[in-house]
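Supplementary material to the annual report.
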Amino acid sequence: MPHIIEMLDITKDFPGIRANDAVTLQVEKGSIHALLGENGAGKSTLMSILFGLYQPDAGKIRIRGEDVRITDPNVANRLGIGMVHQHFKLVHNFTVTENIILGLEPRKGLVLDTRRAAKRVAEISKLYGLDVDPDAKIEDITVGMQQRVEILKMLYRDAELLIFDEPTAVLTPQEIRELMQIMKRLVEEGKTILLITHKLKEIKEAADTCTVLRRGRLIGTVPVASTSEQQLAEMMVGREVNFHVDKKKAKPGEVALAIENLEVKNAKGVMGVKKLSLEVRKGEILGLCGIDGNGQTELVQALTGLAPIEGGRVLLGGRDITKLPVRKRLDLGLGHIPEDRHKHGLILDFRLDENLVVHSYGKPPFAKYGILDFEAIRKNGERLIDEFDVRSGEGPATPTRSMSGGNQQKAIVAREIDRSPEAFVVAQPTRGLDVGAIEYIHKRIVAERDKGKAILLVSLELDEILDVSDRIAVIHAGEIVGVVDAKKTDENELGLMMSGSMRKVG
Amino acid sequence: MTKAKNDKLVLSLVATGLGFLLGAIVIIGTGKNPFIMLNAMVFGTTGINIAKGIFNARYIGEFFIQAMPIILTGLSVGFAFRTGLFNIGAEGQVLVGGLAATIIGLGVRAPSIVHVPMIILGAMLAGALWGALPGFLKARYNVHEVVVTIMMNYIGLHLNNHIVRNIIGTTDGVKTAVFPKTAMLSSEFLAGVTNGSRLNWGIVPTVLAVFVFWFLIEKTTFGFGLRAVGFNKEGARYAGMKVERNVMTSMAIAGAFAGLAGAVMAIGTFGFGRTLPAAEGYGFDGIAVALVGGNAAFGIMLSGLLFGMLKAAAPLMQSAGIPKEIGSIIQASIVVFVAMKYGLEKLLVLMGRKSREPVEGSAV
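Predicted assembly:
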């Protein structure tokens, strides 16, 4: 098969960092080609170059055997390259068809000819088995459907090569399976797919070939069928990776965090958490799993003081913290790794070392008489960067915004663990992270447990819940529908409880 | 961080340069010599008239008189902005500051050493109250501070006019009686060295205010919290900071800076209370000063001096036959160029890249 796209010896420098170092990527026509790498490995830069957002400092790009210079995304579109972005770019109160034709509206005289467009959208949708209703409004369809609209957008523009940027990050397990089917269908119909991801499972399931990048360098291009997940992971991380979390048996002690008949309103003003009770003991990890939007966010925010509690109590080490403000709870020994690291976890415009003291900047040694000691803040930053292997371009002075997601999360974990709280509320600690970082963060969480800390782990990833937790509580519609031993349960049982069709407490 | 600061400085300098360039082009368009503008700028700030070869130190003093209030209102707007708030109300805060200065100036009998600090503190307190109210409404009820501060400007203006006209009383319908000597910041020494200008000790609290701004924002835990709220409210809340309280205090401090401007003008520049037909624009100049100064203490001081220069040069240009509006055009275009930040940055990058372009071309 001929190569539809060849990126040869691409080098791209940014101030202080070489994002791509003589990287070569050759994609065969009619294949699913995966591009694998950790956060910050240079995947996005390479794709931005292919899409004309950046110009390479060296190297050349060939499309269907011809040398091209892609100066902007319009050129890329004309060459038949389409991108399905991680964050959809759709107008919510427009219909599917209106979104798809945005920018190249078909006209009949002076009037918009939506009818003709809708017909074509329906045709394409049928051809590739996308099953999208052209007249539905975006706000009324699921996230999985919205992604299909993005795919349709590319197909409507006759894209030959479809780039999927982390397409499964926002999907449910079921939707992921369907997406894999769609990709295979697209390839059958002669399209080529470039799949950017760091999820090995998906590569094994869908891709034919895989190119691995690490720290801006090309590590290799391998056929997926003859390469194991373990091998792929090692290529990506550069060392042996342990998928399974090693941990000793938990030695639960007394109750550290007690939740009694908790009631919390959600953003719509109705009860998102209903009379919920849970206990987390010292030296154990209690995993809380559930389908997204079943009260997890409300629960975490109520525990940590970000949302008001309507009813019930929260006890931390026996002390009632129900009405205490955030700072007091933190001082009493509550740790919180928030679900949204950009919204809550970090002040992105602060330096790294400033972010590492956002809780404790007012206390010695970081401040005396209300005056900050920047030297102490910097030293603290250096210590944590070193201890937790946070990679940053300029050390403590690195602007947090410029760091990769994995290292931002490591910084948050470093800050929270360093405060050494008695009870930890950990929400989605590994969302969007690569295997290396996931492994590291899991290890640190287990290490905290072994030190006798109580940990409440809230996650949407079932694998994570099953791997890391000692006990598992399942939340459905704001209620706990089951508490089980992590060793004595499996995905099926949890799945049934998550969907509300089974209850099991004990 | 230093790099970011550097970029900001370069940006402001380039914007200023372009603003003057545009001013020069407009002058050429009216058939005059742009050198007249340059001469007016130099004359208005240093007192040296290159064209006529004379020196008059009075212009230096008047230059500072122009710059002082807008540096202070610039600090006011900049301080609120660092907490993510847009203080359009510096105008009204100046007015109530001036009103408080007038009331204490005329109503209290005390030796200078007590009287002056009393007036200054009173004016700052009045400005702080005028700023704290929108801050409170924002924090408590999430009422947008822009709307409230704009309205507070009108309330401040008419409150001042009402009290000056109907309660304190005026000598000619506009001015109150002259303040006693003990209330004044005037300095025979400063006036003396500047050939009888209105320059006064108001320069001391102004410079102090710049330092206080810098120290509070950059060095204290209090400033750390304000900056955190300014960058990311939710992140600050998560970290246990009291976002609502920070919003209110920030607006109060912003108001205090503007109130100080009111005092400096009342007991420094004028020496009497005044009624005003409309706002004088110090608050709006403050927005421009803060913007060009990058919301940083010393940047605001420099841009305040720059805009002070434009104000001081305007009458000089007019007397040389150039419409005084040229100064406003330059001021406005500097602000526009700073606001066009991204476009300018791109331009700078392109200019910097030019030398590397052939390498890139040959590689592809």
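The mean pLDDT of chain A is 88.
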